[in-house]
Amino acid sequence: QLLLYAMGKTAELHAAVCLACVACAVAFSPTAALRASRLTSWTGGGAPSAVSAPLLGSASFVNMPRRNAGMGGFAARRGAPVGLRMMGDSADDLSKKFEEEKRTRLEMDKIFSDASADLQQLANKEMETLKAETEDLLQQREEEWEALGNKAAASMVSKVDSLAEDFLKKAGRSVDDDDDDFGELERFLGPEVVAVIGEKSELRDEVMRGVEGQASLSVSSCERLLETRGLKIENTDTLIFVGDGDPLDRYTVERLIGRCLKLRRVLVVSSLGTERANLFPFSLQNALTGALDKKRGVELGVIELSKKMGFAFSVLRVGKVKAKGGGLGGVQMAAGDKMSEEIQADVAADAILQALMLQPAALNCSMSLVGTKAASVSQDGWDDEFLRLEGPEVWRETLSGGVSVEACRDFIQQGWSARWTKSGTGLTTPVRVEQTKDGVRLVFVPPQSTFVSFKEEKAMEKARDKGEEYEDGFKAKSSSKDMEGGVEVIVEASPTPRVRARRCNMAEDIPVKETSEQVILGSLMKEIKAWEGKNGK
Questions:
Q1: What residue spans of 171-230 are helical by DSSP H?
Q2: Residue 240 near residue 263 (C-beta atoms within 8 A)
Q3: How far is CA 22 from CA 13, 29, 56, 104, in A?
Q4: 341 contact partners, CB below 8 Å, separation of at least 6
Q5: Pairing of strands 486-492, 439-444
Q6: Residue closest to 365 by CA, chosen among 425, 427, 306
Q7: What is the pLDDT of residue 433?
């Protein structure tokens, strides 16, 4: 458009514009420049101006003959725009290609940059994974070396003991049995070296402060459960695993227990609902992460190792832990996994110390703890709450109306208990009534089976072939004698007049007879309430 406009102006300006176009054409295409130089001869018919002559660099251009002279400047004005348009189109195409190449180069640079960043990120992740695996491998190797060293040390001690025993025999002396008695007694002594293990939390800090406040204890600890390489627990006799928050790793817990050479006690702080993970509302907590299932796995792992290794265990399940001073200074306890309320961190820590130092009922027991509205808990209060674990206790009721404790005890021993010796009691398992100092004991007595299995029948035949007796042809089947379970009812005046019921005569492998137990408890509650209404003031 600029060139077309210039053609209507003076010849000198027209020539100057054409010369500028020729210079551009020379930069891109020599052939196009040649065509443009020829066209300049058509623009005015005269010599170029002083401005244009140096740009051409050749005098021959000045004397170039004009074509189509007969037609004057008409042919020039007609042909010049076509050539210039061709030259302009070529320049536009080159500009577009240049822009496309530029965009392509920028896109490729971005792709390479993103790929480099992704590769760097993957490399960093791989390095972190290799680092973690290396640390775990080093820790396992260290523990294996420690185990080998402990095994070698135990072997050396055994050899020394054997040599000492041989020496005493040759010297005419006997081995003192008091050492064995002391070794057995040592398992039941209180803690001396305690390790508090678990993620840092308010409850863990309260437990640490409580343990450190005991002058007779030395303490070891670690911030995180997996960072145990620097934790010296070989001489620890008591381990406290604080796992009320995030679940602990069962494998790591069992590995730490195996490292302790003088272990007597393990306390596991867990959460309420580990035995009720399939029931609402605990099923919601367990649905996404399976946290309650993992905590239950840790509990079972500790209980199994307790049977194998001989140490005592305690599982304390607490509700949601609140900060100190939340108005829940009291406590309520129950055996097993019950209740769902919250608890203050300081109250839960006090319960752990009570179970560790002062309460024998907490040995080899699982319990639940929740907070209650009270200022604090006295030592008598703690003793009364841990009393619920003996049996365990299944029901308690305070006597009201000013009734006599002795009169209530006589009613239980003479009146209420007599009905269970008659037929039509509604029990699926018969009971035997035994009077105690403070009440009665109803002991379950399942009928003995006279069924003879195929294996027992073969044994009878072999006994007859050998001429031996086989107890009149069958063995009376019975589990641990008088250990089929039962319910003991206690009427007591201290700390308050009340009636309590707890399980009794329970062998470890005997299941709870829940149907018969509920029948007995239902009758007891009903009869006590009626008796209070009749004899109260």
A1: 178-186, 202-212
A2: no
A3: 14, 10, 9, 31
A4: 319, 370, 371
A5: antiparallel
A6: 306
A7: 92
Amino acid identity, position 275: E
Residues ≥6 apart with Cβ < 8 Å to 282: 272, 273, 276, 292, 340
Q: Which tokens in the block code for residue 32?
A: 């196009």
**Model pLDDT for residues 489-503, shown as the tens digit of each residue:** 999 998 899 999 999
Q: What are phi and psi of 31, to 5 degrees?
A: -65, -40
Tokens of 110: 């971005």
Contacts of 232 (CB under 8 A, 6+ apart): 220
Q: Which of 61-75, 168-182, 254-268 has the highest mean pLDDT?
A: 254-268
pLDDT at 174: 47
Pairing assessment for the beta strands 330-335 and 439-444 based on DSSP bridges: unpaired
CA dihedral angle for residue 463, residue 468, residue 473, residue 474, rounded to 10 degrees: -70
Tokens 């130092």 identify what position? 357
Residue 330 tokens read as: 């009291």
Largest CA distance in the chain: 154
Sign of CA dihedral 377, 379, 380, 385: positive
- pLDDT tens-place string over residues 30-79: 444 444 444 444 444 444 443 343 333 443 333 444 444 444 444 444 44
| pLDDT of 384 above 70 | yes
Instruction: Kindly report, residue by residue over 410-419, the tens digit of the pLDDT.
Output: 999 999 998 8
> Which residue has tokens 């018919």?
45
For 503-524, the pLDDT digits (tens) are 998 887 788 888 899 999 999 9
Q: Own/partner pairs for 73-81, CB < 8 Å, 24+ apart?
A: 73/42, 73/43, 73/44, 73/45, 75/42, 76/39, 76/42, 76/43, 77/7, 77/42, 79/39, 79/42, 80/3, 80/7, 80/18, 80/39, 80/42, 80/43, 81/3, 81/4, 81/7
For tokens 């420690």, the residue is 146
255 Cβ neighbours under 8 A, 6+ residues apart: 143
| Mean pLDDT across the chain | 77
CA nearest neighbour of 229 among 202, 190, 256, 199 = 256
Give me 331's structure tokens. 């406590």
Backbone angles phi, psi at 2, to 5 degrees: -65, -40
Which residues, 6+ apart, have CB-to-CB distance to 165 below 8 Å?
A: 175
Contact 83, 42 (CB under 8 A): no
Tokens of 293: 């299932």
> What letter would DSSP give residue 425?
-
